[in-house]
Amino acid sequence: MAKRSRKVHPIVTALRRVCAALATTGRFIRRHLPLPRRIPIEVVLADQVRRRALKREVARTVRSLQRILGELLPGDVVVVVQQAIPAEQELAGCCQLAQRPDQRRFALIRLALQVDGRRLSTDEVLATLAEQCVGLAMKEAPGVEHRVPVRLQPGERRTSFPPDPLRPLRDVSHDEPEPPAA
């Protein structure tokens, strides 16, 4: 029985070399270029569906803010989303800054899901996150701890909208003239 030849086509050999060169170049770039650092995010919720959705939105917002603020954010930032932030007055969010013994700064951003018994919408939580990140970027941290509180006024907020421009100006069914009596 004849043995099969194990010759590899020259095009396959050339493609393997190109792929190996691309992989080496990719590893070099990843190792030597500053890539955006991932900020750890922890959402403390029992409802798994809501936890995943909220974590996805917070992560997307954090990445956008990282692109905008760049190196203004400290090297280490952690985001914790929790039901409420206990304080003398309930906060929608706060940021705690500190320095490690090696003089590196780190920040803990805490976001609340509920303030004064009122559940915050996702937009309000993300607005609080943006406010904390901007405050963190603008603040110098010479001391041990700083807080940038965000307080929401309790109570119902109603947005009044202008009248609907497509509504009929008058109700036609009531304005018809009555037929003359015979």
Give the class-level CATH name of the domain at 35-138: Alpha Beta
Number of helix segments? Answer: 3
Q: Name the structural class.
A: alpha/beta
Average pLDDT for all residues: 78
The parts where pLDDT drops under 50 for at least 5 residues are: 140-147
Strand fraction equals 15-25%
Strand order of the largest sheet: 1-2-4-3
Folded structure, characterized:
- The chain has 182 residues and is α/β, with parallel strands linked by helices.
- The protein has a domain at 35-138: Zincin-like, CATH 3.30.2010.
- The chain contains three helices and six strands.
- The protein has helices spanning 10-32, 48-69, 122-138, and strands at residues 41-43, 76-82, 93-99, 105-112, 114-115, 118-119.
- The strands form two sheets. The protein has a four-stranded mixed β-sheet, with helices on one face. It has a two-stranded antiparallel ribbon with strand order 5-6.
- Helix 2 (48-69) packs parallel to helix 3 (122-138).
- Residues 140-147 have low confidence and may be disordered.
Write a short abstract of this structure.
By secondary structure, this protein is of the alpha/beta class. It is built from three helices and six strands.
What are the SSEs and their pairings?
Blueprint: H1 10-32, E1 41-43, H2 48-69, E2 76-82, E3 93-99, E4 105-112, E5 114-115, E6 118-119, H3 122-138
Parallel strand pairs: 1-2, 2-4
Antiparallel strand pairs: 3-4, 5-6
Helix pairs in contact: 2-3
